[in-house]
Amino acid sequence: MVQKKEDLDPKDFNLAFMKKYDVFGVGNALVDIIAFVEPKFLDKQKIDKGIMTLVDETRQGQILADLHEIKKELRSGGSAANTMIAIANSGGNCCYAGKVTHDTYGEFYKKDMEDAGVRFETAPDKEGHTGTCVVLTTPDAERTMLTCLGISTSLSPSDIHLEDLKSSQFVYVEGYLWDGDSTKKASQLTMKEAKANQVKVAFTYSDPFCVNRTRDEFIQLTKDYVDVVFCNTEEGLALSGKKDPLEAVAYIGTLSPLVFMTAGKEGAYVCQDGKIELVPGFPVKPVDTTGAGDAFAAGVLYGLTHGFTPKRSARWGNYVASRIVEEVGPRLSVKLLNKQDEVLKGY
Q: Which residues form the Carbohydrate kinase PfkB domain (predicted)?
């Protein structure tokens, strides 16, 4: 879909059209290893269902050994990487900064990202192991993730390509990066440079556990740097300390001018300058919820960088998310390029 001058705020028009990239993403570069399992597998492994758990290389190896007879699929992933790939699928132009190494998974990661249409920013290191995320999906479409971060935790400020950052409309940073000292510094540099160069900052809270660990810091960060917040209802409640979703999104709306909070099958809340609206979702029968939030953020960012209103952007985000939950894994098998007008007709 072609961006139109009349759809944009006049002060943003010339700036947007001077940018080389729509979005510059920063995140943990992880190879997703996707498998379908029965609940008894989780019970046997004593794995907590439905959440992301950090594990070391030994534990990851044990789990993979027990999966040896189960069919597995590989995808380049990590939360922000999934979002960049889905933006490219919609027709957007983006690049990504993450860290892999010269092992089998690292070589796969780089090629897979580039094949998906995303410029991969960071050259592989020579030592260490590329991070992996074992994604276990049960018949109820719930996904359980076991993440071994590997060398992804060594992403540092020197890995952020500032010229590409300055050439982007948005930067998009994942909250998972606040768990490591060097990744946190890389994220802080990204946000500071974005603000200094008229690049808008989008930030996802990533996970309720991330919020609970760094709640005060996330609140201050949102106030100081963030133009667009992404979260789900659970994350929004954790950050706000509220018990009602509307109160939660309203609170976050006092920290940032634009907030998108997903609400499952109900759709997503949009809070723009304090005004809240629920944008309905699309009816689906979910197969695998892996990457739904990442896909939603991709749809929204595509919209915001192509002249959509926040409400229309949320509607497109809901559609992209609805398609991803009908697939296995966080990658769409269908192309969404040029489908925006059809899907958003009358909206």
A: 73-333
Q: Which CATH superfamily is domain 5-28+78-129+150-333 in?
A: Ribokinase (3.40.1190.20)
d(CA 338, CA 82): 20
Q: What share of the chain is helix, strand, coil (3-state, %, to 5)?
A: 45, 20, 35
The sheet carrying 21-26 orders its strands as 119-120, 94-97, 21-26, 168-174, 200-204, 228-232, 258-262, 268-272, 275-279
Beta-ladder partners of 275 = 272
Residue 43 CB neighbour total at 10 angstroms: 10
Distance CA 274, CA 301 (A): 20
Run of H or E including 149:
none
